[in-house]
Amino acid sequence: MHTPKFTLILVSVAAALFIAFRMIGNDYLFFAGYTVLQYVVIATAWNILGGYCGYVNFGSAGFFAVGVYSTVFFYNIGQQFDFQLPIPVLMVIGGLMAGLLGLGMGYLTLRLRGVFFAIATLALLVVIETFVVNWSFVGGSRGAYIIPPSEIPILGAFIQYLFLLMLILVVLSLVAARTIERSSLGVGFATIRDDELAAEASGVPTLRLKLIATVVSGALFGMAGAPFPYYIGYVEPGSAFNLAYSVNAIAMPMIGGTMTWVGPMVGALLLSTLQQVITVTISSAANLLITGLLLIGFVILAPKGLVGLWQSLTAGRKQT
Questions:
Q1: Does residue 317 surpass a pLDDT of 70?
Q2: Which tens digits make up the pLDDT trace of 165-183?
Q3: Could you write out the DSSP letters of every residue in 60-118?
Q4: N or C: which end of the chain has fewer CB within 10 A?
Q5: Mind listing the pLDDT tens digit for each residue in 224-275?
Q6: pLDDT tens digit string along 62-114?
């Protein structure tokens, strides 16, 4: 299927979902749906570097937080000079800032491999969080309030506007991931994942490709984080750098499958929906426990995730 046709189908599905939620008329669906969509973007962003290139990033929450605090920074600037940037503009700025961070991090750390790269990304997360905790202009350790408008013209409730923005970002991220996967760039990523030394020996510009993956992945994280202060209303380092973002960013692609763009989407939809149900029926404290147990189970029993399991089953049926 060509990219324009695929994009048109995604846009149609997204429009149908938004209209269905509007017809139901329950704002909680938009609140819960926003979180689910946010994790689809996060899982897709992580998979571009972790799944396609095989470089595990434990510092995902740092990139997400860069988007969050970019919005807080410009919100505070706007309060002082009596202007406010539109959220789509803040998402672009958050994406640029996180992309630049990805470029810098990649240049410094992508010569490391395996566990050393993973530890370096975790260290970067700690450095960024320490910087934010001591930066009083964005609230520091005490946090910052963001006052969203209650309604938006035409759409109505503000949460519906945030949901629509995240829905558009989901479409963009899925189209970007699928396009990369099916391009020569995706082939280059796959050679790095399968055998980086052999790829280098064959003339593949591995460092350049890894930098591209880090920048694209970081930018998507930043864009996902930018609307978050308007969603939550009060941001402090504990919420922006929450361990759940790093854990879920890894667990969702691992559960869905890391080899294709479909896997992170499937994993994010299943796991984040399950987490929303657990939050309402049991407690949000149980979310990480369930995520950890599922991650262990899939790593042992289905290391290629649900998509890989499905492909194995369908291939077996064809042979019989």
A1: no
A2: 999 999 999 999 999 999 9
A3: HHHHHHHHHHHHHHHHHHHHHHT----HHHHHHHHHHHHHHHHHHHHHHHTTS-THHHH
A4: C
A5: 999 999 999 999 988 888 888 888 888 899 988 888 899 999 999 998 888 8
A6: 899 999 999 999 999 998 888 889 999 999 999 999 999 988 888 887 777 77
What is the three-state SS of 167-188? HHHHHHHHHHHHHHHCCHHHHH
Look up the pTM and report it: 0.92
- Interacting residues of 10 by C-beta distance below 8 A, sequence separation 6+: 171, 174, 175
**Amino acid letter for position 82:** D
Q: Which of 251, 258, 256 is nearest to 292 (CA)?
A: 251
Tell the burial category of 265 from Cβ atoms under 10 Å away from its Cβ (0-12, 13-18, 19+).
buried
Rounded-to-10 torsion of CA 225, 229, 232, 235: 100
The helix (H) or strand (E) run that includes residue 296 is helix 287-301
Q: Do residues 226 and 15 make contact, with C-beta atoms less than 8 angstroms apart? A: no
**Which residue, among 235, 228, 218, 213, has the nearest Cα to 62 in the 3D structure?**
218
Mean pLDDT of the chain: 88
298 alpha carbon, distance to own chain's centre: 20
> What CA–CA distance (Å, rounded) separates 161 from 33?
12
Q: Please state, in angstroms and rounded to a whole number, the distance separating the CA atoms of residues 38 and 167.
A: 9
How far lies 54's CA from each of 49, 189, 264, in Å? 7, 8, 14
CA distance 45 to 169: 11
- C-alpha span between 218 and 177 (Å, rounded): 13
DSSP 313: H
Q: Is 137 or 316 the better-scoring residue by pLDDT?
A: 137
Report the alpha-carbon distance of residue 174 to residue 184 in Å, rounded: 17
- The residues, any chain, with a CB within 8 Å of residue 4's CB and separated by 6 or more, are none
Q: Which amino acid is at 178?
A: R
